Amino acid sequence: MKGMTIIVKKVTEIICGVIFLYGIYIIVHGHLTPGGGFAGGTIIAGSFILLVLAFGSEFLALKKEETGSSILESSAILIFIVIAALGMLMGGVGIFFVNFLPKGTIGQLISAGVIPLFNIAVGMEVAAALLTIFLALLIYRDEVLK
Amino acid sequence: MIIYILTVFLFLIGLYGVIAKRNLIKIVIGIALMEYSVNLFLILIGYVRGGTAPILTEGLGQKVFVDPLPQAMVLTAIVIGLATTALLLAIAIRIYKKYGTFDIREIKNLKG
């Protein structure tokens, strides 16, 4: 697809990284403030979608990118299941999703055991999945309109 | 009470879009509006006046929480709604490839 004008490109260059960092902030502080994996993941996917919409992309590059985001999505699910299985192995009670790490003090950034790790896995999953859906629709449209 | 009626009004706007519009993309937008109004209604049911976010924080006294159960349900509903919208748009693109238009009257005419 085609890109947009130079004003949109310059503004996107400036704010795109800030949006990405804000998404990471939302994900990492998911156990302290409202937000978490899903909200932060959508914000990160939004920064990538903004980049694709503003600068445009070639058909082959889109296909390559879609393969990469699809692999990232699958590996995020794998990380989620591995952490849950680690809870089964190391928790001592033998069930999924046991919080086996030390809890820490309430209000600290590194606390609440495995919950921040799950948040990070969910954030990766949601960002990659939303990006995959967007890129798949874009590729599909390009194929249809050709 | 009036805020619940406003969500019903938003639902009716989406229903109008589905029934009265002839463009497929506008129908998809109407379905999405209906979905969002139902989500908003469920979230408003769980709201408690003066309540904070249901997260364990440091200065936890006997504060009032909003109900976290509708929030978890609506989060699931948002994800399902996203998948539904993506599927509808994919079908709309496929119809556009076959008939060359988004107007449902034209599609009906071309069929016979």
Outline the structure in words.
The complex is a heterodimer of chains A (146) and B (112). Chain A is an all-alpha fold and 146 residues long. Chain A is built from 4 helices and no strands. The longest helix of chain A is centred in the middle third of the chain and has 32 residues, at 59-90. Chain B is built from 4 helices and no strands. Chain B starts with a helix and ends with a helix. Chain B is mainly alpha-helical and 112 residues long. Chain B has a single domain, classed as Orthogonal Bundle (Helix Hairpins), CATH 1.10.287.3510.
Task: Profile the largest sheet of chain A.
Answer: none
Strand content of chain B: under 5%
Mean pLDDT of chain A: 85
Helix tally of chain A equals 4
Helix content of chain A: over 70%
Please provide the ordered H/E string of secondary-structure elements of chain A. Answer: HHHH
Domain count of chain B, please report it. 1
Q: How do the strands and helices of this protein lay out in sequence?
A:
The complex is a heterodimer of chains A (146) and B (112).
Chain A: H1 6-28, H2 37-55, H3 59-90, H4 115-145
Helix pairs in contact in A: 1-2, 2-4, 3-4
Chain B: H1 2-20, H2 24-45, H3 68-99, H4 104-111
Give a short synopsis of this structure:
The complex is a heterodimer of chains A (146) and B (112). Chain A has 146 residues and is an all-alpha fold. Chain A is 72% helix and 0% strand.
Question: Which key phrases capture this entry?
Answer:
heterodimer, A: 146 residues, mainly alpha, 4 helices, 72% helix, elongated, B: 112 residues, Helix Hairpins, 0% strand
